[in-house]
Amino acid sequence: MSSNFIDQLKAALAPEQMRLWQTRLAKALIADDKAPLSIWRAYLWESYHYVKHNGVNQALAVLRTPVTDKELQIRYLKHAAEEIDHDLLCLHDLEKIGVARETVIASRPLPETAAFSSFLYDFVMRENPIGRLGYSYWAEGSADYGDVLIPRLKHHFGLPDDAMRFVVEHRDLDRGHKAACEKTIEKFALKKEDQEAILYFGVATCHQFFYVLEAMYDRAMREA
Description:
By secondary structure, the protein is an all-alpha fold. The protein has a single domain, classed as Heme Oxygenase, Chain A, CATH 1.20.910.10. 77% of the residues lie in helices and 0% in strands. The protein is globular, with a radius of gyration of 17 Å.
């Protein structure tokens, strides 16, 4: 397959990705006025609650992939294995700002965060599982913004890199993940129905994540 579909996917995702930068949370982090630490705390806390599911729902795609598609199954499982412990980075960073990991683990996510995770599971188990690559493509691509975000986090909160491992380590790791995801799409998303699933789920998850970020901001303001 040519890169035409990747170009189509990028074009479809672009408006939703730009919309994420219009969230109150993103605007607060980009602004020069110092943001309250509660924004960082809420972001990490809710990220823990959806990130802990990412490796699992990625691996579940194997169940609904033909057993003859060995290479695709291997790619799913390899990516799942690399995602499985990213929630621990959130817990580590929260501990650095005084939040006990046991408190976070015992807590429940906001409804918007829970709905986002549920959408991932639902699509993989009831729809075309290859569509999850649409989510992976934009989510892994978020690392491209790390060079902008990390200095702003230091400006607002004065945190060292070791207290921001969730974003610092993702900045480097996810660049490789995005490239691998793109190669997987180019090699395996050859059918029209597979491309449609990737387009739909990529755009839909990015759209829904807007509301997750907005809910994070509301929580941060309540706790500020």
